[in-house]
Amino acid sequence: MKYCTHCLQPDTRPNSYFTPEGLCPACNYHRELQAVDWQERYEILEEFLQPYRRRPEAGPGFDCIIGVSGGKDSTRQALWARDKLGLRPLLVCLSYPPQQVTERGTDNISNLIELGFDTVISALAPETWRRMLREGFFRFTNWARATEQALISSVPQLAVRHKIPLILWGENPGLQLGDMKTLGRTGYDGNNLRFMNTVSGGGLGWMLEAGFRREELPRYLYPQPAEFDAAGIQIVYLGWFWKDWSIINNGLYACANGLEIRSDSVENTGDLRGVASLDEDWVTLNQMIKYYKFGFGRVTDYANEEIRHGRMARARGIELVEHYDDACNPAYIESFCAFIDITVKAFWQQVHASVNPRLFAIEAGGRIRRRFKVGTGL
Predict the structure, then answer these.
(1) pLDDT tens for residues 162-180?
(2) Mean pLDDT of the chain
(3) Among residues 52, 121, 148, 305, which one has the fewest Cβ atoms lying within 10 Å of its Cβ?
(4) Domain residue spans in the chain?
(5) 376, 318 in Cβ contact below 8 A?
(6) What does DSSP assign to residue 84?
C-alpha cells in the first residue's frame, strides 16, 4: 500500500493508478487545472448545449434531466443549470423506502421543489429493496450494491422514456476521484458512467444468481449502449466546467439556498462538515466498511480535497483520518440490522470476514487494528 505524494489517496482505490512521480489521478488532474482557461471551458459548454435547447416552436418540454437527492451537489447543479445556463431541467429523484429515508432528506427534496423545479419522485418496491440490501451485504459486504445501481440507472431510464437526450451529472469520477474506468472521450463525456466501480457495468447478473426474478428488476437495469445510441443520450459532467467544484463549496452554496445539513457529530459519521449523503444514514456503515476493505473512508475523501485546494496541511489530514475514518454510530448499525433482520453480531461477523488482512488485523474481542501508517502506507 502506497500513498499519493501530495494527498492521502492510497493506491488501493479501485480502478486507480499513480503517475511515475507518485501522484494519484485526482492530484495530477488538479495540478493540470492550474493552467485551465475557465472562460474557454464555459464557452465550450455553451456551444455544446445549443442543439439541446428547446426552441419555442417545439412547445413545452425539458432541455435536460438531472438526477437529484436534494443534497449539496444536486441542489447546486439544478440551480446553475436553470439560473446560469438558462436551461429547463427535469429533476429525477429515486427515493429510499420509508424505513431508510431521513426526514432531513425529504425536507431537502421539498426544498428543491419549492425552489421552482419540476421533479419526478419515484420509489421501488420496498420488500424487493430490503431483500436487495440483505443480499448485497452478505454477498459483497456492500448493502448499497444494488441500490446505487438503481439510483444511477433511474436517470437514463427516464431520459430514454421521455426522449430527453441530455443528462447533466456532477463530478467526473475518473478525474476528480480516480475511478479511471469512467473516463470518456472528453473530460465532460459521461457516457462511460456505466463502468463506475459501484455499478460494475449496470447488469443484473448477480441479482439473478441470487434468485431475484427478472420481472422484479427492470428499474435496476442500466440502459444498454444500443439504447443510449438509439435515443441519442449524452451524459455531461458539469464538474469539468466549474473551477470551484468541491464538497465545501457545493455545501456552502446549497446551504445558502435552503439545504438542511447533518447535525450528528464527526465521531459518529466521519462527516467533517455534515453535508454528505443527507437523505439516509446507513451510507455511514458502507464508508466504515470501505475503510476496512481499502484503507480509506469518508474522511480521507474530505481531507484529500482540502489538501488539493490548499486549505488543509497534509499533517492535519493525517490526524483527522487516523481519528475518524472508520467512524460509525452504533445506532446506525442497529437500525440497519433491524431492517434486514439480522443480529449485530452477524453484522460484525460479515464485516470481519471482509477486512483486508494485509491492511488490518482483527484482535481478540473483535477490535480491528490498522497495520499501515496513514500517509506512509505499508
Answers:
(1) 999 999 998 877 666 666 6
(2) 92
(3) 121
(4) 39-241, 263-370
(5) no
(6) T
